[in-house]
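Hi R.,

Here's the chain you asked about this morning:
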Amino acid sequence: MAKTTHHYLIFETAGGFCGIAWSDAGIARFQLPTKSAEATERLLLRRLPDAEAGAPTLAVLETVAAVKRYFQGEETDFSGVEVDLAGQDAFFRDIYAAARRIGWGRTTTYGALAKELGVGPEAARDVGQAMAKNPVALIIPCHRVLAAGGKIGGFSAPGGSSSKARMLELEGVNLAPPPPAQQSLGF
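And here is the predicted structure, written out as tokens:
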């Protein structure tokens, strides 16, 4: 069996330096922003150690342009981007397909996503595991999947849950608790 060849590109956005890696099948890895090109490259190559820097295809260039627009706060839809999910099991691919349907500025929970897939709420942990192992974060918008009760939950990208919160804020999602239903008397 022939080995898949991956190429990658590191590029700067308003949010920091991102990395993208691709194969003939599509985008295989996306690295969310870090403060330096070197850190981004190191993180990307940790997952795809045999990838080589390369000239991006037109599809990759279009995705890079969309990522730049995203981090400038412009509504962006990545649902048409071809992804290479080779090596992912069928259930994770189903979870990723469901997550890709969550549009700009919208959120769901791990449990709700599990229910949408026709599995019980006990599968919410599996959904969380899939989100943590998402090879193309942002393109598969794992940042839009929250913990029970709309809590931010974890995020395995650089910056952790504060990065997740910033990405949601870019999309206009308010994570603050709702104002109290009853006004204080002020004393």
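One quick note: The first helix runs from residue 37 to 47.

Cheers,
M.
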